[in-house]
Amino acid sequence: MIRYTLTRLGLLVLGLAVSSVLIFAALRVLPGDVALLIGGTQATPAQIAALRESLGLTAPPWQQYVDWIGGVLRGDLGTSLVTGVSVSAELAEKARVTVPLAAMSLTVALAVGLPFGVLSALRRGRADGTALAVGAQTLAAVPVVWAGMMLVVVFAVWLGWLPPQGFPRAGWNDPVAAVRALILPAVTIGIVEGAMLMRFVRSATLQAMGQDYVRTAAAKGLTRTRALLSHGLPNVGLSVVTVLGLQIAGIIVGAVVIEQLFTLPGIGRMLVADVSARDLPKVQGELLALTGFVLIVGFVVDLVHRLLDPRQREAS
Most Cβ neighbours (<10 Å): which of 30, 58, 143, 217? Predict the structure, then answer.
């Protein structure tokens, strides 16, 4: 297990290194000049050139990358060219919205995907089981923006139960208002991701129901449901753990879109604004932080799967 962990850790570090190079290179091909944005239309060419020099934009690309990655290794993701604020500080501030949103979305996805996925498999061939399967297929194909708009129309406009947009100025100092502001965005992401998870759980459950050990348990007197719950669900759980990494990545991507739709002051909305402002150091730090989070989640999921699956432990 130690050897496996070290191998996976090495791959994690390699993945972060490759990601940093790709992020840095991709941002350098974007059109626009942050010096022009900061200087404004009244700045002379000489002033723009001086500003570009002071921002370090005239240094060779390899030197800019070395300076940036050296700061990252010291825990410094850089400084915004536009505001002069530390990228790490702004990420920490915006994470106070994005992290709870992602956690609530994952909770909704699990609450939708796990029980209804198992139920859909158990009721296969019946009207309710077919309805669940068709519903999951439909919801999984729904664009997250459209789902969010429909939820706003129903629960904010028609019923008036929840706020349609925004986040309280007091933030988490007003926890009730903060949670209310995140409910619709979290449900929007959660039901779409939950529908995808439900399809996966249904498939894994059907596969488990066809295994010999489940059929043997049923032959010994257990009902099909009890045989599955007693002997099949542990294997279904292993499959779910494997796909959770992809689900979390999907939730993070969904948060970028949903924060724009619901005007939430999170990392996703900040990232879109910084791309528009051509604030390269800030965008680099944000993308690297998000990429690192997804890679770390995959690393943890691999380790948990290894610990839960006795077959893999014996093979190591």
Answer: 217
Q: To 10 degrees, the CA torsion angle through 118, 122, 126, 130?
A: 20
User: Taking phi first (over 0 means left), then psi (-120 to 50 degrees means alpha), and beta for anything else, what does residue 32 get?
Assistant: left
Q: Are 104 and 186 in contact (CB under 8 A)?
A: yes
47's enclosing H/E stretch is helix 45-54
List C-alpha distances in Å: 261 to 112, 118, 146, 293: 23, 32, 10, 23
- CA-wise closest residue to 125 among 202, 11, 42, 222: 202
Cα atoms in the Cβ-side hemisphere of radius 13 Å centred on 101: 31
On the 0-12 / 13-18 / 19+ scale of CB atoms within 10 A, 189 is: buried
DSSP letters along 138-163, please? Answer: HHHTS-HHHHHHHHIIIIIIIS--S-
Condensed to tens digits (0 to 9), the pLDDT of residues 19-75 reads 999 998 887 776 666 666 666 666 677 767 776 776 667 778 888 888 889 988 888
* CB environment 104-121: b (16+ within 10 A), e (fewer): bbbebbbebbbebbbbbb
270 closest CA partner among 126, 46, 20, 90: 90
Task: Taking residues 197-207, report their average pLDDT.
Answer: 85
Q: Which of 150, 129, 103 is nearest to 247 (CA)?
A: 103
The pTM is what?
0.84
Distance CA 110, CA 248 (A): 11
Mean pLDDT of 176-193: 93
